[in-house]
Amino acid sequence: MTETVLVTGGTGFVGSWAVVRLLQQGYRVRTTVRSLRKQSMLRDAIAQQVDANDRLEIVAADLTSDDGWADAMQGVDRVLHVASPMHTDDSSDINTFLVPQRDGDERILKFAAAAKVKHVVITSAAAAAKPGEGSDAVTADETVWTQPNDPVQNPYQRSKAIAEKATWDWVKQYGGDMQVSTVLPTAVFGPIIMPQNNSSQQLLVRMLKGQLPGTFNIGFDIVDVRDLVDLEILAMQSDKAAGERYLAVSEHMSMKDIARYFKGNLPEIGRRVKTWTIPDWVLRVVARFSANVAVFIGLLGRDFRYSNRKAKEQLGWSPRPVTETLHDSAERMAELNLL
To answer: How many separate domains does the chain show?
Structure first.
């Protein structure tokens, strides 16, 4: 019998791809949106990627309220919880990120357990597995936990570690049969399904628009959104993934090399990209006045890389090269006239 999977936040960048990949694999999919006014828009976008037939159901539920979740979980076999309160007007207060994230995760777990769901996969973040200040680690794996008071991490990043810890504390107290896994993505790039989902890739958008005067002296561990979702599905399908964390990362690439790739390999789309390196001191000064720039300060001088060994060896995950991700990201942005 075909299983039903619940995806939280189906209109999001990751959530929309989760819906598509699951439908492509033959699952029945139920996905949540905060408002059913978005239902037609989502159905139209999904239809451009896959024929859902009658296998897609869209329901209203918000992570900040219990309303709708009991019905949303009814008859569900597995859950991919990818919705996350990413943006806020007050980025200096950790509680604006932490409270809805932690409470939302617990709400999903509570209602999933009550509905006797088999497996829940929660999307955390690689920021929850960052070596502490003074660490000599060259590689960070799933055994590493971010220190909740790490001054280098911004409030959003620290909130992800605290929220994931709360998830595992809930699992310990729960003691039931429901399986739980967490997946920790690095910087998530890739082609967007809907135009409004480009906020997660604003760095690339601004670079391609020529709005950045140059590149910062930083690099990113990158994962393609399609590969991230594939890893979450692999975890969801595997009994051995129960109780495990998995880092989702493909490769590391410097911001300068990203700019050079666009400039050299997509000459028309990348014609406005600037490859000059902006001095670190300029970044630090601007970061005092811009929260959007301040998030990059922690990447200056970072000398460790995230490992994908566990996901590859335990689940057979195989992410694509970063250059393919960048190419598809830029091509899709151009196709949607976002540049």
So the answer is: 1
Rounded Cα distance between 286 and 288, Å, is: 5
Q: What is the pLDDT of residue 267?
A: 93
Contact between 322 and 222 under an 8 Å Cβ cutoff? The reply is yes
Digit-coded pLDDT (tens) for 69-90 = 999 999 999 999 998 764 545 5
Q: Tell me the CA distances in angstroms from 103 to 98, 153, 162, 280, one per residue in order.
A: 8, 21, 11, 37
Which pTM does this prediction carry?
Answer: 0.94
Q: Residue 323's domain spans which residues?
A: 4-335
Q: Does the pLDDT of residue 97 top 50, yes or no?
A: yes
CB-side neighbour CA atoms (13 Å) of 216: 25
The CATH number that applies at residue 166 is 3.40.50.720
Distances 339 to 12, 198, 279 between C-alpha atoms, Å: 20, 11, 26
Per DSSP, what are the bridge partners of residue 80?
Answer: 7, 121
Instruction: Kindly state the tokens that stand for 205.
Output: 């958008």
CB < 8 Å & 24+ apart, contacts of 262-270: 262/207, 262/208, 262/326, 262/330, 265/323, 265/327, 266/327, 266/330, 266/331, 269/208, 269/330, 269/331, 269/333, 269/334, 269/339, 270/208, 270/330
- CA 259 vs. chain centroid, Å, equals 22
